[in-house]
Amino acid sequence: MKAEKRPAPTKFDTVGWRELVALPELNIRAMRAKIDTGARTSAIHAVDQKVFEKDGQDWVRFRVPASKSHKSLYIEAPIHDRRAIKNTSGIPQTRIIIEVLMLIGHHKWHIELSLADRENMGFDMILGRTAIRRRKVLVNPGRSFLMGPPKYVDEHFDLSPTTHPTEERTMAPVQTRKDKKGTER
To answer: Is-above-0.85 flag for pTM?
Structure first.
């Protein structure tokens, strides 16, 4: 009887059930994200969503509310897709999808990110299974922050906040300021 050929072992990195990620195109240097293999699509807490047209393409303007790791951010991004996504109650909602560069540990790749109101959730971002599929990453549900802070952060944050990067998929934070009364200018 012949021995079966087995594939050569492949090195996988292990992530915890929560990790720090960076989203340079959204000007987020660090954000706690829950790794949620039960969710197909990744999501970020986004409020005040407004769709508009720019250069013949649909864009969305939204705000990522402040957290412990970042200030409130106003962002404009091209819309990648719109699709029905089940919320935590299992009810489908049509959500806007954007595509962003994500850094986690020493890994970096583009992911699809749905814009959702996650105000009552424990994490401002969930990383769904399609974002980590085929990325040689395993999830340890009993551990946290195994990857450490995102690497390569500085090389992705060298853009002036008032200029738009040249890459099409790149987002641009919108610079707004509040006066002493809290009114945006």
So the answer is: no
